[in-house]
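Human: I wish I could look at a protein chain and see how it folds. This is the protein in question:
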Amino acid sequence: MNGNTLARVLRIPILAVATLLLSTGTTAADPAPNADWPMWQFDSPGSRYNRNETTLTPGNVGSLKLKWAFAFPGAVAQSSQPAVVNGVLYSGGRDGKMYALDARTGATRWVFDTGTMLEHIPAYGLRDGPAVAGGAVYFGDNAANLWAVDAVTGHERWHTRLDNHPLSIITSSPLVFENHVYIGVSSQEEGGGLADPLYPCCTFRGSVVSVDAASGAVQWKYSTLAQPTTRTGPPGPSFSPSGGAVWSSPTIDSATRTLYYTSGNPYTGTPGDLESIGAVDIDTGTRRWVNSLTPNDTWNVRCAVPPAGGACPVPGRDFDFGAHANVFDIGGRKVVGAGQKTGIYHLLDATDGSIVWQTQLSVPTSPLPIEGAESLAGIQWGASYDGSRLYVATYGANPGTLFALDPGDGHILWRTPNPANGCLIDLPPVPMDPLCQESMPNAVSSSPGLVYEGSMDGKMRVFAADTGAILWEYDTHRPFLGVNGVPGIGGGLNGNGAVVANGMLYTNSGYAHPITTGMPGNMLLAFGLS
């Protein structure tokens, strides 16, 4: 833990903090005060459905207007999904800082600097979405630290390193449940074999960690595979098994006290229980069951460089899970489901992991001339469940498409493809950006009667929940001047999802990746009714 926590807080005039403590009162036109969005999953079962958000309706959502824009300084991408609690919005930047903003105006309340921007991987900074509970903001960083910061003052409470591997990072967003923080650990070691053909690939193991919310003490750590032990060569030393990163965010069934996670691909070796949906006891961290949906799919970035060999003797197809698990009931039966990069949404029995149904929504085809890129046609980040329908989106599936599924049997109720003019502007049609993609990788969000999904073409769209009709669209790929006085630009929407809270819609805009490209940007945008 750092000693000088106060030095990490970039303070603003005390009036801003005082304003946070004042009660503003409500009027009959104000939204319900409990329509907050406190964490990435929205709730512990991972529904991403804000049932209390009733201000926005199918009848008025077409009147949404941009209320404010915030530009993250020096960033080339933005993917930390906001949390909105008690009138304050919290979001992390690729500059390694956590920002607290007034949810209505975008005015800065405080900024907390983790100091990890130059410590590890500058391109990534803070990628996960924070969780807010018990007066604290919890979030992970690009050096695998989990942080707890006071929600009012921005002062550090504690931070804990969750993995000592030098390439470990956190992209999983935390879930707070019964005074514990649950989070997954992922890694950039998957790319190590490409940078150096003699790199001793690989030794990272993905995990899910339980941490005491008050102290930061690790309660248990569940690893997705056994300790790497096998060493072979030439051309250089290698180890297996490795990989199984947990990129996604955990979810919990409180009735059975079970945590559900999804896991990534093996980097080396051919372990049989990765690219899985798994279940863990939340009190002890012991495994209950694991269902591997694509076993032995070994892949690392060396697999993208022909011919096969070295750290990738038998290239897989990189069909890992980035999407979180949804937990719900069907006719009294507890089930858990998640979308995979295979383009399949899998629904399993929550007690033993057996398959209930599987629906193929897209067929992977490679948009790039390298192995592994074909997985980008699948389901990337996460689905939403509103009690009657599952909403699932596909990535570069020519084009990406938003689906509504019947949770009972998985059949498609409706589908709405990414509009064909998504990468065109004005008339006559003009190509918008060579990096524009008609893809829907974002995690899906919903509220009563409405579904929210962003696209790599830079558009945020709102759909009718019953028909899939597009009710509203906004092109975020444009220049902005942030309310913080910083100029910025919007870009592709990826790596998070829309947040709907208290009559407002929030989205990040700007995505860039060294392999899959995308339109860069550094914006957080807030929309409200006229």
